[in-house]
């Protein structure tokens, strides 16, 4: 048993589960498993994070009223999971990840009726060749943009992976029925994935694919990613098409880190119609003290679709680590629509709530604990 616990502890260290680490470390842990970087032997580990907060929102009702509520997942989505590896020899290993999301404020499943809604994947990994895996998995664009979003996809507040204007303007975080390859070659990570639509009427119906390259040069990084998906086939024998492309960079400056990027979205509801959106973003992360880090971020959303507003959002967030696993945080965000759009305005964060005014302010105070 001591040997088992030691292996689990090694995986915990590998995953970077420290309060000072960013959310991308969780993806790094999965990529380590996927590319054969997990420790030798066999191991199974239970892990998770629980995150809860109190939030204030302005312009939260049609009469202009404000809202105070408790949420799950301000910085990290609350979840638990099991991951494991088995060494097969010769630098090859088998691995799996099962991960379930839940709402800490009421104990319900994050996706009703689906237990492992975040990840359910199994694969083979080789030290030199990389990994091939199958199941419900993160898309390549999600894996890459998570590293470059200043707020690392925090629900309070970012405009990734969905954006404030509409859920349709988004790449998918995960794909069902996917086959995914991940390879690491010196400082370059390559990701490619394909999701089967499973429709007998057409192989392309509901299918999706994507890929990306992420270069890590230590103090400098740059990446490109692409995401494509088809809708279900309709009575006319056609389907909708969604395409996203992103370009991102990061640069360490002293103890801080600067991040910036661009995402372009194109949606074809029919063959003759198109909707487009651009998202520009940037920010800085800075460790003010040993246990205190501050993040500032800015997002600008430009829509080329009729009756859809342009908008911007600024965010300031601070995290204070009480220990390696427990942190307190406070975040404030302000979103402003720069163009009227049929009374529909962009809310702060990724909430489904509509902002009932041309601007909205969100303030969140919370904590998270990792295990």
From TrEMBL:
Main location: membrane
UniProt KW keywords: Cell outer membrane, Ion transport, Membrane, Porin, Signal, Transmembrane, Transmembrane beta strand, Transport
Subunit structure: Homotrimer.
Any GO MF annotation of the entry: porin activity
Domain Porin: 11-336
Stated name of the protein: Outer membrane protein (Porin)
Topology of this chain in the membrane: Multi-pass membrane protein
Compartment list: Cell outer membrane
UniProt source species: Paraburkholderia caballeronis
GO biological process annotation, one example: monoatomic ion transport
A GO CC term attached to the entry: cell outer membrane
A Pfam cross-reference name: Porin_4
